[in-house]
Each structure stands twice: as structure tokens, then as C-alpha cells.
Design a protein that fits this description.
Layout (H helix, E strand, L loop, with lengths): L1 H23 L6 H19 L6 E12 L2 H6 L1 E2 L4 E2 L2 H4 L3 H4 L4 E7 L20 H8 L4 E3 L9 H14 L3 E3 L11 E5 L2 E10 L1 E4 L2 E4 L2 E2 L10 E2 L4 H17 L4 E7 L10 H13 L3 E5 L4 E8 L6 E8 L1 E3 L4 H4 L6 E12 L4 E19 L2 E8 L7 H7 L3 H17 L10 E2 L2 H5 L1
Parallel strand pairs: 1-4, 1-17, 4-5, 5-6, 8-12, 8-13, 13-14, 14-16, 19-21
Antiparallel strand pairs: 1-18, 2-3, 7-8, 9-10, 10-11, 15-16, 18-19, 19-20
């Protein structure tokens, strides 16, 4: 509309000023002086109609693996009401998750229903109340392409999608109908963000794809976004085509959630690094990883092909699980992070970019009381050694020490690849500012 007005007014000026030229030539005025005057007036006019927009800032948060072992859903069981309540397990992190414009979580396991029998490792099936609790604490979208997607077979696959969607949450990486999209493009305050999720496959069995060595039924093969290191060239071509299509759909920013790597390894392997570089070459802006169940470092990588800089966090670790030092002899599996992605869209320059990344370290607390376990995800934002923290949470000295150690492990390790100074641990002091 502005352009039309400018063209209309410019046209009127040209007619008017042309008339002036003809009129004033009798007075000996040179034509080129009028042309210069015309262009000068036109530039001022255009400048007056030029709109300057304020940049749009949004925050997207992401959390790591949600593994509901049997001890976790037993801890959530309310015998009087005969139901499950997971909300207390996420109560302390709720303020940080719900304040973002969009928060994404990785659900490992299924929601196959109680008639299938609730179960933990190795075939996970959690009560539907888990999704209610995740929504309560601020989760908006679930990544579901992971190695536990078929823990309860075809029925569990479809029902998980239904439960998540019926709760009002988005689900990524899977779909019920082949013609549907397994990714989403969210319009957040005018910023179109594409969310894509892929998982690794295990070795083929008699020509069939497998996840966690479970055969993927033929009807589901095109309904789970996955890649196989033995067939990588073909799968990368599919990823590239998808990225190109997403760009044509008008996405301002593309985020890939990758389920990859080796369990309990604290550094990315060669395949993770190679895949990240390929996705960077294809134009992906941000890559967030999961599956190792421990935190792996973050870094920026650059592509000479796409000329893009891509932020990669290789693994966010566990958000909640019963994997810990006393159960699997691995203290690193207790640690997690809330990743906050600060994204800016410069409307004038039509450029959208990752402005800043912040991390909130988390730790899973497990206590025993009243004859059963109690779990909670604790944000590690304050000086754990401060006496007021002990009074506030009523934690044992041994618990506070484990929290302090977890904070140090995370804050030291997450930066081991990072050179950019814009990334920092998000501490409580900054939060209050």
C-alpha cells in the first residue's frame, strides 16, 4: 500500500514539475537543474513514507530426555484418588519453562494406555497424566522421533500421537497419516520457526528398518523421521529436500532436534559431527541433540556452502529419569539443562538470527519418605552453598553437595567447545534483572 501511495504521489510530482519546467524555460532556467530538484524531492518524499519496524524478539526453550522409569510413575501415584500426578516433579522448573514463547521437550517412551500395562526400562509406557503435567509446567511441543517410539508397538505409536494432540500440544517427528507433515512451522509473534525431529535407526533386519532393534512395521516406515548410518547418502538427500521445502514455505528459522550419539558418552562422535556439518551446509540454523542421557558440549559451526553459522548443542542430557549414580553408577546422567534460545527477527532487513543462548542447569533430586520415592527437577540457579538455600528447600547437606557438584559439572562441560562470549550460564541474578 505504501509503495502504491509513493508511486501515485511521485507521478503527480512528475506531472506538476514537468509543467513547471515548460513554464520556467521562458525565464532561461536550465532543464537539468529541474531534474536534480525532482530527484531530490522524490527521495525526501520516499524517505517520509518509509516505515521502520522494531525487531521482533522471541524465546524458545528446550529440555532433554524425559524417561519415566517405573519408580517415577510409582512416585507419582496417588492411592486415594487412584490416579497419577507428575506435577510435583516439575513444580520447581515450571516458572522457567512457562515464561518462554515456546518450550519443547523430548518424550522417550509411549502413552499406550493402562490396559497395556505401565512400564519403565526397557519398554517405556507412562500414564497419560504425564502429558497433563508437562502442559501444566509450560511445555508446548513434544519431539517423538526417538529409539523408544515403538516400545508398545503400532497401537502405542498411534495412541501416543492422539494423546499428545488431544492435550493441545504439538508432536514432531511422527505422524498418523503419510500425507500429513511430521514437522511444524510455528508463527510466534510474526516469526515463522520450523521444528524438525529425526532419530537414528538400528541395523536393518531382513530388509526392515528397526528402532532399538524393534522392527518398524511397513505401515509406519514413512511415519517416523529417521536416518540410518548405513544408508546415509539417501537419508541426507531426504533431509535436504525437506529443508528446501521448508524454506519455500516461508520459515524464518529452522531448528532440527536430532536423536543421535552414543549413550553415556560426554562428547559427540564422528557421525554426530558429520551430520551437524551437513545440516549446516543445507541451511539449518540451530541443532539440538538428545539420546546420550548425559550432557554433551555446544559449539558454533560454519558452512562455506550455505555461508551460515549454526549453533549445535549435541546433547541436553536427561531432564528427568531414574538414571543416576546409585542406579547405573553414572552421576552425569543426573544432570540436565534448560536451553533458552533468544531469537531476533529484523523486519527491516528481513533477517532472522539466533541472538543469544542461555543455559539453566538442572538436577534430578530423589528422596525417600512415607514409604515411597519422591522425585523433582531442581533448577541450579543460586549459590548452592548459601545457607538460605538449605532453609528454603529443607535439603540435607549431602543433597546440597550433590547439587553443587552437578552445577559445576554442567557449567564446566557445556562450554568446552564454545568460543563465542555471547553464551553464558543463566544465573538467578540475571533472571531477576
Amino acid at each position: 500500500m505504501v509503495k502504491k501511495i509513493i508511486l501515485l504521489i511521485t507521478g503527480i510530482l512528475i506531472v506538476f514539475l514537468t509543467g513547471c519546467i515548460d513554464f520556467n524555460t521562458d525565464k532561461g532556467m536550465k532543464k537539468n537543474s529541474f531534474e536534480g530538484n525532482l530527484y531530490e524531492k522524490e527521495e525526501k518524499l520516499v524517505e517520509g513514507f518509509k516505515e521502520n519496524y522494531e525487531p521482533i524478539d522471541i524465546v524458545i526453550s528446550s529440555i532433554g530426555d524425559i524417561l519415566i522409569h517405573n519408580t517415577l510413575y510409582m512416585a507419582a501415584y496417588n492411592s486415594e484418588a487412584n490416579t497419577y500426578d507428575f506435577k510435583p516433579q516439575f513444580k520447581k522448573v515450571k516458572p522457567f519453562l512457562e515464561k518462554s514463547d515456546l518450550t519443547v521437550a523430548n518424550l522417550e517412551g509411549t502413552l499406550a494406555g493402562g490396559e497395556e500395562g505401565y512400564s519403565g526400562y526397557p519398554l517405556f509406557n507412562a500414564p497419560d497424566n504425564l502429558i497433563e503435567a508437562l502442559k501444566f509446567c509450560g511445555i508446548d511441543a513434544i519431539t517423538a522421533a526417538n529409539n523408544h517410539r515403538l516400545d508398545k508397538g503400532t497401537k502405542g505409536f498411534y495412541r501416543t500421537i492422539e494423546v499428545v494432540r488431544n492435550s493441545g500440544l504439538d508432536i514432531i517427528g511422527v505422524k498418523k497419516v503419510v500425507e500429513d507433515k511430521s514437522y511444524i512451522i510455528k508463527n510466534i509473534k510474526g516469526v515463522k520457526v520450523a521444528l524438525v525431529n529425526y532419530t537414528y535407526e538400528t541395523a536393518e533386519q531382513s530388509g526392515y528398518k528397526t528402532l532399538n532393534d524393534i522392527v518398524v512395521p511397513k505401515e509406519l516406515e514413512d511415519k517416523i523421521d529417521s536416518f540410518n548410518k548405513g544408508n546415509l547418502e539417501k537419508d541426507l538427500k531426504v533431509m535436504k529436500e525437506r529443508i528446501e521445502y521448508i524454506k519455500k514455505e516461508g520459515a524464518d528459522l529452522i531448528i532440527f532436534f536430532m536423536h543421535w550419539g552414543n549413550e553415556y558418552e560426554r562428547v559427540p562422535d564422528k557421525l554426530q559431527k558429520a551430520l551437524a556439518q551437513k545440516l549446516c551446509d543445507y541451511g539449518v540454523d540451530i541443532i539440538i541433540g538428545g539420546h546420550p542421557h548425559v550432557i554433551q558440549p555446544a559449539e558454533y559451526i560454519y558452512s562455506n556452502i550455505s555461508l551460515k553459522e549454526t549453533f549445535v548443542l549435541y546433547s541436553q542430557g536427561n531432564f528427568i529419569s531414574d538414571q543416576r549414580e546409585e542406579t547405573i553408577k553414572n552421576k552425569y546422567s543426573e544432570d540436565g539443562i534448560i536451553t533458552e534460545l533468544y531469537i531476533r527477527k529484523d523486519v527491516n532487513n528481513k533477517k532472522t538470527y539466533l541472538k543469544e543462548v542461555r543455559f539453566i542447569p538442572t538436577w534430578v533430586n530423589k528422596e525417600t519418605g512415607s514409604g515411597k520415592y519422591f522425585y523433582e527437577v531442581v533448577p541450579l540457579l543460586e549459590d548452592i552453598r548459601d545457607s538460605s538455600i538449605k532453609e528454603k528447600y529443607n535439603y540435607y547437606d549431602s543433597t546440597l553437595k550433590r547439587m553443587e557438584n552437578s552445577f559445576k559439572r554442567t557449567s564446566d562441560h557445556i562450554y568446552s567447545f564454545i568460543e563465542k562470549k555471547s553464551i553464558e550460564v543463566f544465573k538467578s541474578k540475571e533472571l531477576n534483572e
